[in-house]
Design the sequence.
């Protein structure tokens, strides 16, 4: 019975992680085409939308695991499913991001840097402060830096969401059967 449950966990993680990664790719491309990438005005809106999508997909994955298995899911299983989903999703979307900013749209990073400079100018920073800020941002605005930060940030956010969502979606076994 436990072996079957492991297979179910793996299939749920791969399926919903891949779906989440593909949705992340679509959102990323839409942001770029709409000119919203790097724009702080819409950043919080996109963050809220991303969290809502992530929570929804996590709930759907938990439901599939519960309904497709023995009808139960512990808090730890929910946390594991969600965290592993975020690993799969983050790797998929980070690989795409690397390919996109390296080969498909190499001007993407330059556009982000330009937006960042404009934002710093709006805040009244001096040229020296802007230059220093851009140097610090440089390691995060390279294709490799973006991919690494995408994976680390995605897994971290996925873990946090899983901590919270699993508390509500868990379905414990009865103590006395």
Sequence:
């Amino acid at each position: 019975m436990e072996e079957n449950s492991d297979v179910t966990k793996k299939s749920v993680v791969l399926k919903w992680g891949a779906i989440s990664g593909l949705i992340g790719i679509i959102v990323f491309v839409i942001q770029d085409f709409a000119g919203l990438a790097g724009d702080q005005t819409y950043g919080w809106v996109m963050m809220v939308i991303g969290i809502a999508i992530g929570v929804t997909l996590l709930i759907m994955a938990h439901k599939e695991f519960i309904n497709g298995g023995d009808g139960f899911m512990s808090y730890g299983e929910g946390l594991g499913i969600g965290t592993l989903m975020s690993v799969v999703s983050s790797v998929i979307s980070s690989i795409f991001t690397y390919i996109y900013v390296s080969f498909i749209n190499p001007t993407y990073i330059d556009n982000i840097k330009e937006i960042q400079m404009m934002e710093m100018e709006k805040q009244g920073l001096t040229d020296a402060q802007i230059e220093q800020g851009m140097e610090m941002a440089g390691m995060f605005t390279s294709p490799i830096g973006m991919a690494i930060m995408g994976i680390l940030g995605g897994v971290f956010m996925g873990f946090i969401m899983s901590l919270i969502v699993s508390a509500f979606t868990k379905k414990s076994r009865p103590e006395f059967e």
About this structure: Residues 1-6 have pLDDT under 50 and may be disordered. Residues 2-169 form one domain.
